[in-house]
Amino acid sequence: MKFTIRKDALDGALQTVFKAVSTRTTIPILSGIKIDAGASGIVLTGSDTDITIQYFIPPEDKEGTVASVDAPGSVVLPAKFFVDVVRKLPSDTVELEREGNFQTRIRSGSSEIMLVGLDPDEYPALPALEEERVFSINALLLKSMIRQTVFAVSTNESTPILTGVLWTLKNGRLKFTATDRHRLSSAEAAVEASADLSIDQLVVSGKTLGELSKIIPDDGMTAGIVASESLILFKLDNVLFYSRILDGTYPDTSKIIPQTYKTEFVAGTREFTDAIERAYLLSREEKTNIVRLVTLGSNQIEISSSLSELGKVTERLETKRLEGEELKIAFNSRYMLDALKVIDSENIQIGFTGMMSPIIVRPEGEDRMLHLILPYRTSN
Amino acid sequence: MKFTIRKDALDGALQTVFKAVSTRTTIPILSGIKIDAGASGIVLTGSDTDITIQYFIPPEDKEGTVASVDAPGSVVLPAKFFVDVVRKLPSDTVELEREGNFQTRIRSGSSEIMLVGLDPDEYPALPALEEERVFSINALLLKSMIRQTVFAVSTNESTPILTGVLWTLKNGRLKFTATDRHRLSSAEAAVEASADLSIDQLVVSGKTLGELSKIIPDDGMTAGIVASESLILFKLDNVLFYSRILDGTYPDTSKIIPQTYKTEFVAGTREFTDAIERAYLLSREEKTNIVRLVTLGSNQIEISSSLSELGKVTERLETKRLEGEELKIAFNSRYMLDALKVIDSENIQIGFTGMMSPIIVRPEGEDRMLHLILPYRTSN
After folding, report:
1. Residue of A380, A253, A379, A274 lying closest to A333 (CA atoms)
2. A24 and A114 in one domain?
């Protein structure tokens, strides 16, 4: 194996595949990044067995030559050191040459680096995927759906299925659902899929979706998605991102979402968020982050929190519209802030069906996304 | 106590005095910030007993009214919550009013916050300082001297005196020295002082100087300095910064600095730093961070590091000038990078007096600062 490559291209590709490499792996070969150089380009692969990322570097791009391969071949190089040193190389081009016993020589300007490599044949092969369930979605829309939901997954490993986001697809609409039993977030969007494609139990780890989100560029490309029984593959231009699907049955959450409200208001997202944030500052001293909300007369609400050692925060807020029964409710302000943070619209709409029933938070007039927060039972 | 104050002024002052407040104090009153409101302005005080910061907010500044005091008085408010909530208050002005039992009401826009306050009479009084040893220095120059030296203090609490920076003053020149026994950094500058003022054993904690550095603005003001037996006071416009002086005798370091070199070279700071950084990436896998430097013929040097499991980095560097005996030396590359990071000049000058003698690193042609690194004994 011998090739010359533009440093920026190698650096960018390494940053991406390195996201799949675990620094604490117990499988030595997976602490490396696999390099395959051939006439059609260079392929880099990183994996931690849960996630595998493959990056294809073409011989040329619109700026000219990217890589020229003198001798095809493969090697596995220690990931962390390789990634860090490439970023700091002195010249704009880098030459890699595999020598005896997988040793690889890296040359750039006046730097010469010999790396102890590993046998590429020992690197796990990529799983074969039957291309049965295939659809595609605007990648930025996918990124947005991840942002809208992923924060609500459970971090409790005792219920592994809830650490993932449930994907369902029906009539060309993809829906994400995430819940940790205390709150639930969902988002949906249209995808390009054959009319008869239906998916109802596909759960992808929240951590994986977070990593995927990081490598989705902001240029409006389309993401191709292939789902098999145990794996899901995301195709993004030069990147293939494989992830395992979580085992287990996701609970049915459809029944906990109220369809009508007894009390409902619309408020400015910024003003409501600021008021909750100030109340949160006191509430965060206790794990439950309890904040109280009561409706007052004439379109006003009051948000408050108190802590005997510190004091009390009281916020009055003028809503844009307040309808229905009088209400007194308590909830975890951290959950409310998490939901508010991903709402970009000017106004929010919050619905209640009683002090012990779920609170529903949405962007005003928007039904493609929803955040549900269970209230707290409090004595006063 | 009752006053109205501009939010930005209160926020800025709180951020500054909060740097002196320890969140893990065992003295409850010190987890608070003391507020004294009087006709001449508002004074905020934060302290962890080692450091005390006092901020004076005048009734007016060049933009107009800052604070107007309706009733003078004092109170101590819980620091962390107070600082966080003021930053998030909705209006540009804030009203503070102390009520019964030190409870304090904060009003801003539609927010109302009641804080449990503490008795200001229980707050420790500021020590009286005999103004004997007094001098002044451009505050930015002071900040630069701190940056040049403070990274070299010891983090080992078993030799507390070495966790500080030694200040000496003679003939109107102030000198800082910091060492952790493996390396030493020093910097000096002219100060305004009476001709006969001499200081020879004044050691200020590195941590304290780091905090002081953070509150020095970039506007070229003068810092007044008052040193007593046990305390040092920095006066910066509206801020008084008090710190305890470390007890103990600082070791005499004058003899370990070589006056002549057997080998010396001048190199581009950027190129030399980059080469050391690449070698560091391999060396950091072991605690000693060992990198080797050898002189080659015709003005060249070679920098290298190796690790049997990973590989070897070899860097060739063209110096601007290389004089003296052939040299082979090994050193801790982390120490070298720490020193290089605070050198802003285009070229560096490095002097050696043998493979077991201290290495001296300076900006080229600059003798007001110096970094010394002890070499490593290595077998090959």
Report:
1. A274
2. yes
**Shortest Cα distance, chain B CAs vs residue A315, angstroms:** 5
Q: Which residue among A91, A122, A153 closes a domain? A: A122
Minimum Cα–Cα distance from A115: chain B residue: B311
A88 vs B110, B274, B316: nearest CB: B274
- What is the per-residue pLDDT across A59-101, written as a single tens digit (0 to 9) for each? 999 989 999 999 999 999 999 999 999 999 999 999 999 999 9
Reduced to 3 states (helix: H, G, I; strand: E, B; else coil), residue B273 is helix
Question: What is the C-alpha separation between A344 and B374, in angstroms, rounded?
Answer: 56
Distance (Å, whole) CA A3 – CA B337: 32
Q: Is residue B289 part of a domain?
A: yes
User: Closest Cα partner for B98 from B67, B123, B124, B70?
Assistant: B70
The string over B271-308, giving b where at least 16 C-beta atoms fall within 10 Å of a residue's C-beta and e elsewhere, is bbbbbbbbbbbbbbeeeebbbbbebeeebebbbbbbbe
Amino acid, single-letter form, for residue B79:
A
The domain that holds A266 is classified in CATH as 3.70.10.10
Do A70 and A146 belong to one domain?
no
β-strand partners of B176: B167, B187
Phi/psi-derived region of residue A172, left when phi > 0, alpha when psi is between -120 and 50, beta in every other case = left
CATH number at residue A213: 3.10.150.10
Chain B environment of A284 (Cβ under 8 Å): none
CA distance B89 to chain A (A): 8
Size of interface A-B (CB pairs under 8 A): 92
Question: Which residues of chain B make contact with A278, given a CB cutoff of 8 A?
Answer: 85, 88-89, 111, 113
Query: Looking at beta carbons, which residues of chain A come within 8 Å of B282?
Result: 81
Chain B residues with a Cβ under 8 Å from any Cβ in chain A: 78, 81, 84-85, 88-90, 103, 110-116, 271, 274-275, 277-278, 281-282, 308-318
Q: Indicate whether A294 and A340 sit together in one domain.
A: yes
Q: What is the pLDDT of residues B240-283, one digit of tens each?
A: 999 999 999 999 998 999 989 999 999 999 999 999 999 999 98
Number of domains in chain A: 3
| Structural domain of A50 | 2-122
Q: Which residue of A has its CA nearest to B87?
A: A278
Query: Which residue in B85, B90, B110 is closest to A281 by CB distance?
Result: B85
Residues B231, B142, single domain; the answer is yes
Q: What is the DSSP string of B198-209?
A: -EEEEEEEHHHH
| Gap between the Cα atoms of B345 and B369, Å rounded | 12
Q: Which of B88, B275, B313 sits opposite A277 (nearest CB)?
A: B88
| Location of structure tokens 């200020």 | B204
Q: Out of A78, A81, A274, name the one closest to residue B88 (CB).
A: A274
Distance from CA of A149 to the nearest CA of B (A): 27
Residue B249 is assigned to a structural domain of this protein: no
b/e burial code for range A62-80 (CB count within 10 A of at least 16 → b): eeeebbebeeebbbbbbbb
Residue B185 lies in a domain: yes
Which chain B residues touch A91 with a CB distance below 8 Å?
A: none
Tell me the one-letter amino acid at A269: T
Whether residue A380 is contained in a domain is answered as: no
Cα(B273)–Cα(B276) distance, rounded to whole angstroms?
5
Query: In angstroms, rounded to a whole number, what is the distance separating the alpha carbons of residues B224 and B132?
Result: 13
ipTM: 0.86
**B278/A311 CB distance under 8 A:** no
Q: Residue B167's closest CA among B186, B182, B180, B183?
A: B186
Q: Tell me: do A218 and A190 sit in the same domain.
A: yes
Q: What is the pLDDT of residues A119-147, one digit of tens each?
A: 999 999 987 887 779 999 999 999 999 99
CA distance B2 to A75: 73
What is the share, in percent, of chain A residues with pLDDT greater than 70?
99
What was the pLDDT predicted at A205? 97
Nearest CB among A308, A309, A317 relative to B110 is that of: A317
